[in-house]
Amino acid sequence: MSDPNGKPIVIVGAGVAGLVAAIELQAAGRSVVVVDAAPEVGGRVRTTVREGLVIDHGFQVLFTAYPTLRRYLDFDRLALRKFLPAARIARDGQVSLIGDALADPGLLLDTLFARAIGVGDKLRLLALRRFAQQLSIDDCFGARFASISTRDFLTARGFGTPVIDGFFAPFYGGILLDRTLATSASILLFTFKMLADGDTVVPAGGIGALTQQMAARLVAGTVRTNCAVRALVVTNERVTGVRLHDDTELDAAQVVLATDAPAAAALARTAGLTLPEPSGARGCTTLYYTARTSPIPGKALWLNANANAVISHAVTLTDVAPEYATNGRTLIAATSVGAAADLDDATLDAAARSELAAMGKVPPAALALDRVALWRVPYSQYEQAPGWREHRPSIACGMQGLWRASEMLHSSSLEGAARGGDMAAKAILHAT
Ligand SMILES: Cc1cc2nc3c(=O)[nH]c(=O)nc-3n(C[C@H](O)[C@H](O)[C@H](O)COP(=O)(O)OP(=O)(O)OC[C@H]3O[C@@H](n4cnc5c(N)ncnc54)[C@H](O)[C@@H]3O)c2cc1C
């Protein structure tokens, strides 16, 4: 039922959560306007194409098994390019390939003979894969796993410190931007399940093609970019609109906050409301290089398992998706997480060059890398420490007319954001 006064539902934020909410609400016949402060849609899922190079705003991948997100995407039209279901672990001058031989039997021999992980731990890894795969996503997020850290969970399953620090820490550094493994075991199981149930991919046009494709499903003119919301408008204890960057007001039948958690909390405060916020943020910095020849070739993610590594993980993107660079150039993404991500540009660049050379066992002098971009995303994911789910926000924000569509409703991931948008749309359709 559309608003009798003809006012739209205003969604603040055109990331995955806001776009999914908009798609669902429009599909139900509601009038929707999406406003976003940025110059383009996508939020954390964006890409810039510059001089024939596809530069994602921070290295990021899609798991094709994400069940909610995939409902909003046409995989065929995205021309998805697959990573090898494997990781190359580089440590102290040695490189081992550890792969999911059940997903790609071609990885069996390398994985069996890899010296980075002992036989017992390889068997435990296989058992963990089976264990995660037979859980439902809801099981993964149940209290049993949500309340303990990844490190404690792995220790309880018999993994020793060498494999925890030498494999899981850099691997989950790559996925969760957290090498300390303090993140809740739910996320470990959820991602293990997603890795086992599908492929790890990027679209040929860059990760931003995901949100571009979602936005294209909306009625033309639905999204207004370069349109920051400064405050909520409250009339008789009900949210009735938003005040924009230029001080104009946009009337709304309902307002949906689909921003990241700190921005949502700041907007809610303008209406006198306090929204729960996660305790912290996980940031990362990705450096992009072109090279004549990559020191870290192949379609697998390279993990830097050395203690004190500045670069946590890296990949030759053009080996996975040749479309990421024109003219046969090679494009490499090297990502720093944790405190290292906050180092200054020159320090990060110097460390990336020497660590990429060491990982690929190439003399640094022989490495002709040209830095083409450096992306800092201080708020890439929110912290998901044990017990965080008990403090998740609700969809209704405690004042009539105000709703929340956010990754915060589920998990800090593309799937979590899609679920947040979908859940919020359903709640609004049910209530109004
Ligand atoms: C580098 C990086 C790597 C990642 N890797 C992965 C991965 O491999 N797999 C995975 O599943 N997830 C990954 N993630 C996480 C995933 O991208 C996010 O969980 C998801 O995109 C969050 O979507 P969202 O819609 O909730 O928020 P956002 O994408 O942050 O969208 C919020 C939008 O709100 C807008 N906004 C904020 N304030 C205002 C305001 N006042 N007025 C108007 N607009 C406003 C912003 O401009 C933004 O567009 C990664 C994230 C990053 C950054």
Question: Can you give a write-up of this model?
Answer:
- The longest helix has 18 residues.
- This protein folds into 2 domains: 147 residues, FAD/NAD(P)-binding domain, CATH 3.50.50; 255 residues, FAD/NAD(P)-binding domain.
- The protein is globular, with a radius of gyration of 22 Å.
- The strands form 5 sheets. It has a 7-stranded mixed beta sheet with strand order 8-7-16-17-18-15-19, sandwiched between helices. Strands 10-2-1-14-20 form a 5-stranded parallel beta sheet, covered by helices on one side.
- The protein is built from 14 helices and 20 strands.
- It is an alpha/beta fold and 432 residues long.
- The structure holds flavin-adenine dinucleotide.
- Flavin-adenine dinucleotide binds next to helix 1, helix 11, strand 19 and helix 14.
CATH fold assignment of the largest domain:
FAD/NAD(P)-binding domain
Query: Which CATH first-tier class of the largest domain would you pick?
Result: Alpha Beta
Strand content: 15-25%
Span between termini:
8 Å
Integer-rounded radius of gyration: 22 Å
Largest sheet: 7 strands, mixed
The ligands bound in this entry are:
flavin-adenine dinucleotide
What is the helical fraction, as a range of percent? Answer: 25-40%
What class would the helix/strand composition place it in? alpha/beta
CATH architecture of the largest domain: 3-Layer(bba) Sandwich
User: What spatial order of strands do you see in the largest sheet?
Assistant: 8-7-16-17-18-15-19
- State the low-pLDDT regions, or none: none
